[in-house]
Amino acid sequence: MDTLFNTHSTKLLAALPEVKSLETQLAQLNKLWGKITLIGKINSHNVASMILDDMNRTQIKFGVLQRNLTDSLLRENLQKLLLDNASRAQVAIDLLIRNLFERTADVGFLATDNDIRVFLNQAQSDQSQIEFIENRLKEYVKKYSVYDEIIILDTQAKIRAHLDPSNQITVSTDPLIQETLDSQQAYVETFRYSELQANRRHSLIYSCKITETDQKNSRILGVLCLCFRFDDEMQGIFANLVSECNNEVISILNSEGRVIASSNEQILPLGTYSDYYETSSLTRFQRFDYIVNTRRTNGYQGFYGLGWHGQMLTRLDSAFKRDLSVKEGQEYKEIIDQSDSFPQDLKVIRKASSDINADLSLLVLNGKIASARRNAAEFMPVLEAIKQIGTDISSLFTTSVNSLQEVTVMSSHLNNAGFLASLAVDIMDRNLYERANDCRWWALTSLFRRNLAKSEISDVDTREISEILSYINALYTVYTNIYVYNTQGVIVAVSNPQQSGLIGVKVNKSSGFKIDMDNANSQSYSVSSFSSTVLYNDRPTYIYNAAITDLIDTDKVLGGIGLVFDSEPQFAAMLREILPKKPDGSPMTNSFAVFTDRKGMILSVANHLHYRVGDKLPIDDAYFKLKNGGTRSMLIKHSGENYVLGIAASKGYREYKTKDNYHNDVMAFVFIPI
Questions:
Q1: Can you say how many angstroms the Cα of residue 199 is from the centroid of all Cα atoms in its chain?
Q2: What's the mean pLDDT in 588-600?
Q3: Which of the two ends of the chain, N or C, has the fewest CB atoms closer than 10 A to its terminal CB?
């Protein structure tokens, strides 16, 4: 920030109307002071010289303080803007990377699908076999709606089956096919134009070899390509991060600094090159100056993608708009004066101006005494006028400092708290969306359906199911266990060998299995309440369930699959991620965050020593009535301490909790100490 401030302070100052207004008013008062001083010198030779010299020195002190005040006001406004913009740029890239991390697991699992292996093992496929596989791909995308095309190719790059009927490709020369066949990695990630989706301007494709078995040197059968709905996903991310005005643009840059996604392509077209830096900068673009913030991703579970960055551009001429939602008031002033989190230099300036004005009052008093002794009554109005000017200057200083603290700085705290709470529930909804997809897709695994259809499940059948579950669980590490059960709810196989003792045990109805038995629709799923369960070592969590149906008679339920979500570390990590941080990356001292349900029961807590999962969060019940998708922020006294509190209520993600008949409102509370 220092480089930006020092290099462009004149331009920045010109964009701050309040500071410019302050400078204008002070300049007028200083000019008036000079005129009155001149009048005093002309008309009061007996006493003016010494007293006016002292007052001149006082005026110089005010002048020094004025420059300090202007710099401080500019710095604080700039810092607020940069922190806000950096946060949004960071969130844009990190939300995307979190999403793409899930895709790396998807492609690895789908490439081992036995039906696809059988399909590719055939030299030729008739139309019914192609339709069977393509219907299977349709089922996949009905659940994982983040894909708009899935392509299965053989080793000669011939298209054997795919999803998008408008895509007319039959064979591909795209280099990513050979790269995938030659790769020793679990997947290949490609972003550019691809003939695999010739009707798209660019594609984000996750590709993986399809092999005959899971053995390391197994014969290669072909390649699987999952095509991610990149533009669609970016629109959703951007919509939550930019305002409706046209003074800001948020974008994603590739590793070369080229724009690959933009919230406003008219202002910032795709392909635009950006000299991006980790620090902030000011750039001229399309006849306007923009403040630019660029952030690299923090990654997610060791995944960093293709080296992309998030970038925020805010047009300078409207960057420092006053937040009218925050009013100046005594309630803020009292808290600010007690707080160490507000700019100390501004408090010093406010006190210094008061001290200088007090000194000026003493000088005026001395001047009046001296004037009385020398019968210089004509000097009295001069003294009174200068005293009034000093009072006006001091008042301007105090008003400016208070306004910055109570409006600019306080709005920054309030906006940030609400933003972080909203981010927390968004991350949770996005994460649990994937869980609802996983259970439904894995329930369609043909081997599960064939084995459960048998009149008696053998040890070999159990071992086969468990091996697949273990493979899945190794890819999707957010589960402590994945199990398959029959229509009576008796567990027949588990993914976690350490929990093999559960085989033969009947799961409790509270796990959600009974509800699931009534849902034969491949789009249906059920979720347990957030409650303690033996399946999670007597700790509370969510268990996701989907029915497993017969391969022929899809209305016939054979059993189900249960996914035990590892809620304790997963939810706590989400909350820790959004907490405001100190320079060393640790959470701000005494800040904490909480997930609750509508009744106030704590689902997870981060950075608080005493609150526990299952407890009631001790705040007013009115806070739990926020509408879905709503966000609030306010000052609150909690446990005897002052906090800025941000609250947000979940709204779902894509069809999850919006169109799938699942209702489970979650609240996020972020407490930031003041």
A1: 31
A2: 95
A3: N
Min mean pLDDT across 407-421, 474-488, 647-661 is at: 407-421
Taking CA atoms, 130 is separated from 167, 339, 444, in Å, by: 15, 68, 18
Q: What span, in angstroms and rounded, lies between the C-alpha atoms of 623 and 636?
A: 11
pLDDT at residue 549, as a whole number: 94
pLDDT at 377: 67
- pTM, to two decimals: 0.86
Phi, psi for residue 376 in degrees, rounded to 5: -105, 65
The answer to whether 629 touches 326, Cβ cutoff 8 Å, is no
- Give residue for tokens 């009534």: 518
108 CB-side CA count, 13 A: 19
- Of the candidates 509, 562, 515, the residue with the CA atom closest to the CA atom of residue 531: 509
Q: Are 173 and 157 in contact (CB under 8 A)?
A: yes
Give the 3-state secondary structure of residue 255: coil
Give the pLDDT confidence of 504-562 residue by residue, as tens digits.
999 998 998 887 777 678 899 999 999 999 999 999 999 999 999 999 998 899 999 99
User: Over the stretch 10-29, which tens digit does the pLDDT of each residue have?
Assistant: 888 788 777 777 778 878 87
Tokens 């799938």 belong to residue:
660
Detail the DSSP E strand segments found in 487-640. 491-494, 526-527, 531-533, 539-541, 543-549, 557-565, 592-596, 602-606, 631-638
CA distance linking residue 265 with residue 251, whole number of Å: 9
Q: Answer left, alpha or beta for residue 295, where phi above 0 means left and psi between -120 and 50 means alpha.
A: beta
CA 304 to chain centre: 16
Query: What does residue 375 show for φ and ψ, rounded to 5 degrees?
Result: 55, 40
Residue 72 contacts residue 407 (beta carbons within 8 Å): no
| Beta strands at 159-162 and 188-192: parallel, antiparallel or unpaired | unpaired
Report the distance separating Cα 314 and Cα 291, nearest Å: 5
Q: Could you read off the pLDDT of 429-452 as tens digits, one per residue?
A: 999 999 999 999 999 999 999 999
Least confident segment among 118-132, 434-448, 510-524, 565-579: 510-524
Which residues neighbour 430 within 8 Å (Cβ) at sequence distance 6 or greater?
95, 98, 99, 653
The pLDDT assigned to 333 comes to 59
Helices (H) and strands (E) in the chain, counts: 15, 22
Residue 379 pLDDT: 66
Token pair, residue 471, equals 């493979």
3-state DSSP assignment of residue 612: coil
Cα atoms in the Cβ-side hemisphere of radius 13 Å centred on 237: 28
Q: Name the nearest CA neighbour of 667 among 619, 635, 608.
A: 619
Q: Is 297 helix (H, G, I), strand (E, B) or coil?
A: coil
